[in-house]
Amino acid sequence: MTTQEVANRFNDLAQTGQWDTIQKELYADNAVSIEPAHAAAMGMSNAEGMDAIRKKGEAFNQMVEEMHGGYCTAPVIGGNFFSVGMGMDCTMKGMGRSQMDEIAVYEVKEGKIVKEQFFF
To answer: What pLDDT does residue 84 have?
Structure first.
């Protein structure tokens, strides 16, 4: 798939909250996930490989007490990259309710996402 095709499929699945399917279908086995440096204070770290990325997602989900809503914008494509705006309204365990917004940038090689990087 081209970057545009990967981005379109990502968007279709994201609009219905199918994050597991996105990872299963669109990610390379050796993909990496990069968080901003300040995310470590929130218990979020970088991950390499799909097993580690899935565990990172599970750990984040365990921190969520209640999800009130969320969004993912349409992708913007540039070369082998696409980016989306994302956000969620959630109550984190022991931290109360908050609105989180970020930009996510994805790198595509040989029809698969090989890197995700988050900015917030």
So the answer is: 98
User: Could you tell me if 113 and 6 are in contact, meaning their C-beta atoms sit under 8 angstroms apart?
Assistant: yes
Do β-strands 112-119 and 76-78 pair in parallel, antiparallel, or remain unpaired? unpaired
Q: Is 50 left (phi over 0), alpha (psi -120 to 50) or beta?
A: alpha
pLDDT at residue 44 in the model:
80
Please choose, from the candidates 46, 49, 42, 86, the residue with its C-alpha nearest in 3D space to the C-alpha of residue 64.
42
Which conformational region is residue 98 in: left (phi greater than 0), alpha (psi within -120 to 50 degrees), or beta?
beta
Q: Give mean pLDDT, residues 13-40.
A: 95
Q: How far apart are CA 39 and CA 41, in angstroms?
A: 5
Helix (H), strand (E) counts: the chain: 3, 7
4-25: burial string, b at 16+ Cβ within 10 Å, e else: eebbbbbbebbeeeeeeebbee
Q: Is 58 helix (H, G, I), strand (E, B) or coil?
A: helix
pLDDT tens across 48-81, in order? 999 999 999 888 888 899 999 999 999 999 999 9
